[in-house]
Amino acid sequence: MEEATRFAVELDRFAGIERRYLVKREGHTDPSYGKPPWARTLEELVECGVVNLDKPPGPTSHEVVAWAKSLLGVPKAGHGGTLEPD
Question: Which residue among 1, 16, 17, 64 sits deepest, i.e. has the most Cβ atoms within 10 Å of its Cβ?
């Protein structure tokens, strides 16, 4: 099993999800174009990443963005689309 597939399987295991993967062909990327997410430092992930967030009912989208900025120590953050639970 290639590194990318192992990464996906480990994420599923962490989330308590069990599923089968059918890999037709593993791809390889030239390292001069970047690196895979699991090889990035925390700073690189925060700088160029996306936080997938399951917002609970109650706080507004604006409040959750403010909390994320504070927790991650970043000057700018925003959300795309609605963060409403419905």
Answer: 64
Per residue, the 3-state secondary structure of 2-21, as one string, reads: CHHHHHHHHHHHHHCCCCCC
Of 16, 73, 68, 9, the closest CA to residue 38 belongs to 9
How far is residue 86's CA from residue 82's CA, in Å, rounded to a whole number? 9
Please give the C-alpha separations between residue 86 and each of 45, 56, 66, 68, 80, in angstroms, as whole numbers. 28, 10, 21, 21, 16
- pLDDT per residue rounded down to tens, the chain (86 residues): 677 778 888 888 888 888 888 888 877 778 888 887 778 888 887 777 777 777 777 888 889 889 988 988 888 888 877 656 55
pTM of the model as a whole: 0.47
* 62 in the same domain as 35: no
